[in-house]
Design brief:
By secondary structure, the protein is α/β, with parallel strands linked by helices. The protein has a domain of 113 residues: P-loop containing nucleotide triphosphate hydrolases (Rossmann fold). Helix 2 packs across helix 3, helix 4 packs parallel to helix 5 and helix 6 packs across helix 7. The protein contains nine helices and eight strands. 35% of the residues are buried. Helices cover 50% and strands 15% of the residues. The protein starts with a strand and ends with a helix. It binds BIS(adenosine)-5'-pentaphosphate, magnesium ion and zinc ion (ZN). The site of zinc ion has 8 residues, from loops.
Length: 216
């Protein structure tokens, strides 16, 4: 199954992807996670990406597309993948279509996790995340049993640098300008499946899982 998770910052793409990985055993490819790891490792990619991420802007398409193409060529993607946070511009979507076609593959579905923008700022500014395994927490929802220590791996639970109110506001504007057009793009291709993401995480996941079962 070749799946794209589409949705605004804070819609719950990462949260849903974690559950999909457990049930469907597909690799989870989050461009945001790839960039954050590069930043933490201090690589040249990380140094470049950090400038954009800290401002809530998009990393240039050439950089991002190259990384995803390389990742999709890895053997663990042969049986399928969950793309989270990519594509988020029309050129990225075009490049993904071309890259998959050249491998004789295609997307099975683009799952839009739909959440009204009014809910997103609160979700993002209250998010916490494990630095090591990426597990997502929320001060208004589930938090680790021991303060700042991940329940899954013991890693440090921190607040993402781009989850400040100012950066979140810009990220939402960038989403509207650059990524929202992909909703129509994939609707026209007949690939769009919309899930109401403004509900309890379990209820959202029930719909996501039912949809994936209907594809397999
Ligand atoms: P990225 O890491 O992809 O961030 P994003 O798209 O802004 O999305 P988020 O990770 O913030 O939200 P999410 O939908 O995963 O929500 P989550 O599940 O965590 O990108 C970061 C940056 O990297 C970009 O700004 C850009 O600079 C760069 N970048 C990445 N990809 C790029 C690309 N393709 N091109 C160019 N640049 C790129 O949930 C959020 C919070 O809400 C959590 O606390 C969670 O617990 C809570 N929550 C989740 N579901 C629910 C629910 N149902 N009810 C209540 N709370 C919920
Ligand atoms: Mg995410
Ligand atoms: Zn962890």
């Amino acid at each position: 199954m070749n799946i794209v998770l589409l949705g605004a910052p804070g819609a719950g793409k990462g949260t849903q992807a974690a559950r999909m990985v457990e049930e469907f055993a597909l690799p989870h490819i989050s461009t945001g996670d790839i960039f954050r790891k590069a930043v933490a490792d201090g690589t040249p990619l990380g140094l470049e990406a950090k400038r954009y991420m800290d401002a809530g802007e998009l990393v240039p398409d050439e950089v991002t597309i190259g990384i995803v193409k390389e990742r999709l060529a890895q053997p663990d993607c042969e049986a399928g993948f969950i793309l989270d946070g990519f594509p988020r511009t029309v050129p990225q979507a075009d490049a993904l279509g071309t890259a998959l076609a050249s491998m004789g593959r295609a997307l099975d579905a683009v799952v839009l996790v739909d959440v009204p923008s009014s809910a997103l700022v609160a979700r993002l500014t209250s998010r916490r995340q494990c630095r090591v395994c990426g597990r997502i927490y929320n001060t208004m929802g589930e938090m680790p049993a021991k303060a700042d220590v991940c329940d899954s791996c013991g890693g440090e639970v921190y607040q993402r640098a781009d989850d400040s109110v100012e950066t979140v506001t810009n990220r939402l504007a960038v989403y509207e300008a650059n990524t929202q057009p992909l909703i129509e793009y994939y609707r026209e291709l007949g690939l769009l499946r919309t899930v109401d993401g403004d509900r309890d995480v379990d209820d959202v996941y029930a719909d996501v899982a039912a949809l994936l079962h209907s594809l397999s």
